[in-house]
Specification:
The structure holds 2 protein chains of 2 kinds. Chain A is α+β, with helices and mostly antiparallel strands. Chain A has one domain. Chain A has a 15-stranded mixed beta sheet with strand order 8-7-6-5-4-3-2-1-15-14-13-12-11-10-9. Chain B is mainly α. In chain B, 78% of the residues lie in helices and 0% in strands. Chain B contains 5 helices and no strands. In chain B, α2 runs antiparallel to α3. Chain B is rod-shaped, with a radius of gyration of 31 Å. Classes of the chains: A alpha+beta, B mainly alpha.
Chain lengths: 275, 133
């Protein structure tokens, strides 16, 4: 009886960690691919390069002891239509084989963006998390400012439109925007607001610049990084520091080096392992 | 007679306390062992070392009890298992053919959709938008 209770507790903990991983994945996609640029003077030169391949390791941390859960890959490539070429920003999350028996994750996020303007044209999400499957496809129409969404969940298909105004990015393309900002011109405490489309709904995400910090980036040694605090609502923004942070390497590529998100027991972190 | 009664009462209280502490250590060690079998990595060390430390203290102070020895044995197995898994088992993602196919299919589907958008002139309209709004 006690064993069953212990096993249930462990399962609950696994599910909690996996659900936090989703949030971290959202943050990493957010910091790897799109954001709406309102301050042209603060926009850095483009960092999107064809063939960029970044690998991250997602871990659960408790009292300084870590266990690796999944690998996240971010790949940038070009795709061509009959006359045009676009960037395909792909982000995948795959659980390590040791976790596959208990909770297998195979998530695929894609964004097709224009090369010159970084505007998303098609956004796709196809997730499989422990048997929970969901597909979301969004097509942006900039002439009438309408996004056509198609959601497939539990085998049921649902279609709906989302109306938008101003600049809007999808999850994946938003990360690139954050990397294009010129943080050297920012003052500490500056807040950047971004409208992000997640599952057909528009969310306001705030990134607060907290200055620079030197952190260890695995085999690449110590790197100077820009530190940002990410908040998804006003309550989190009002907190002094928040509980979700991103460190971007302070060079021309602005690659995310570390992402941390605190949870009630321990924390989830995503660290750069290869670039 | 009274002194003897008080002494027995105190011993009984100590016995109960020691048993409670050792049972807690036993539960921690068993939890550590369960976690050691699961892919929790070094996190399994937290309950294991807790159980091990308590059992070791009780073992040195009250050698008459057998339970601390059992706890030490369970903890040792868990520690060996955790260390072995950390040293010899490398984290890797299994090549998933279905996932690769899903990726390819999604890309082809998107290109097809992009071609349709291009034919309807929507891609040209995006290019004519300002870089920064």
């Amino acid at each position: 009886m006690v064993k069953i209770e212990i096993f249930e507790l462990i399962l609950k903990l696994i599910i909690k960690v996996i659900s936090m991983l989703k949030i971290v994945l959202v943050i990493i996609i957010f910091s790897l691919f799109s954001f709406s640029a309102k301050e042209s003077a603060e926009t850095f030169k483009p960092v999107i390069t064809d063939g960029e391949n970044l690998t991250f390791v997602a871990s659960y941390n408790m009292s300084g002891l870590m266990t690796d859960i999944a690998e996240i890959q971010s790949v940038t490539s070009k795709v061509s239509t009959k006359t045009k070429t676009l960037y395909r920003l792909k982000c995948t999350a795959s659980s390590y084989s040791k976790w596959d028996t208990y909770f297998k994750i195979r998530d695929l996020y894609e964004s097709y963006i224009t090369i010159d303007t970084y505007k998303p044209v098609i956004s796709k999400k196809n997730i499989d998390e422990g048997g929970y499957k969901k597909e979301v496809s969004s097509t942006f129409n900039y002439s009438n400012k309408i996004i056509k969404n198609k959601v497939i969940k539990h085998g049921k298909e649902d279609s709906f439109d989302t109306v938008f105004q101003g600049s809007l990015y999808d999850l994946v393309s938003s990360v690139y925007h954050i990397r294009t900002l010129d943080y050297d011109k920012f003052t500490v405490g500056k807040v950047i607001a971004i409208s992000v489309l997640i599952d057909g709904k528009i969310h306001k995400i705030n990134a607060k610049y907290l200055g620079t910090e030197n952190i260890s980036v695995g085999k690449y040694g110590n790197k100077k990084c820009y530190k940002l605090s990410i908040s998804v609502n006003e309550k989190e923004l009002k907190k002094a520091a928040g509980s979700k942070f991103i460190w971007l390497i302070a060079d021309s590529k602005r690659v995310p080096a570390l992402i941390k998100a605190e949870i009630p027991i321990g924390s989830v972190q995503v660290r750069l392992s290869n670039m | 007679m009274v002194n003897c009664y008080i002494k027995n009462y105190k011993n009984m209280k100590i016995n109960i306390l020691v048993k409670i502490v050792v049972i807690i250590a036993l539960i921690a060690s068993l939890l550590g062992l369960v976690l050691a079998f699961l892919p929790f990595g070094l996190i399994a060390l937290i309950p294991t070392l807790f159980g091990f430390a308590i059992a070791l203290i009780v073992f040195f102070i009250y050698r008459k009890y057998k339970l601390p020895k059992i706890v030490l044995f369970i903890s040792s197995i868990a520690i060996l298992l955790i260390a072995g898994k950390e040293i010899f088992i490398k984290d890797e993602v299994v090549a998933d053919k279905a996932f690769i196919e899903k990726d390819e299919a999604s890309k082809n589907e998107a290109i097809k959709e992009l071609n349709e958008l291009e034919e309807s002139g929507l891609l040209d309209e995006i290019d004519s938008l300002d870089v920064v709004e």
